[in-house]
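task queued by scheduler; priority normal; single chain, no ligands, no partner chains; default sampling; output format set to structure tokens
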Amino acid sequence: MVKINNPLLFILLGGILIFVGFGAVFGMVLRLWQAGFALSFLAYASSLVGTLLSLLGILEFHQRDDGY
């Protein structure tokens, strides 16, 4: 199993997931894709996981930066 020890990677991956979720919702609003349950759930889940990953990366980066 690969361990990710770089908090900046968490922040970057979380940001990408947030933009994927936003892009999916934006595509549904512009009617590029039909708004179904699966796509709505995928957009919500990617936004939620992206937010949590970014927050985890920020907290870990802050903890390493303090030197405690």
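post-processing summary
- The chain has one domain: 14-66.
- Helices lie at 7-29, 37-66.
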